[in-house]
Design goal:
mainly alpha; three-stranded antiparallel sheet; 3 strands; 11% strand
């Protein structure tokens, strides 16, 4: 149990990973959307997502070529408590506020890379 708690705290104890968790409060995001918001390279974001996923803080869902991430439905009480704590913290942090504004922006919500292939084709011809 102590080892599991240690892994959870290490995963959530990183500023970038906390920002990702706060972003995902608004709903599922594709990797390319998270990359755009954070301004990091795709490999760095994927590493952070892998760590969060590995301890059960986020879930992923493949949709064609794209993988969408969302906050996990906690399977163990410790994950539930940690996600509850994350939801209540950093609400007044300026960086978190900027991230949330970006998540809600049309630019992020309409990134062509994240649309399923049929919607991409329609967008190009429209």
């Amino acid at each position: 149990m102590l080892k599991q708690a240690e892994m959870l705290f290490k995963a959530a104890g990183d500023r970038t990973r906390l920002r990702i968790l706060k972003m995902l409060e608004a709903g599922p995001l594709c990797v390319c959307q998270i990359v755009e918001i954070l301004g990091l390279c795709q490999s760095a974001v994927s590493k952070h997502l892998s760590i969060l996923s590995g301890v059960g803080l986020i879930d992923d869902e493949r949709q064609g070529k794209w993988t969408f991430y969302r906050l996990a439905k906690p399977r163990i009480p410790e994950v539930h408590l940690l996600l509850k704590t994350v939801r209540s913290c950093a609400c007044d942090d300026p960086q978190v506020a900027k991230d949330k504004a970006k998540v809600a922006s049309e630019k992020i919500r309409s990134l062509p890379k994240c649309l399923p292939p049929r919607q991409q084709e329609r967008r190009v011809t429209a």
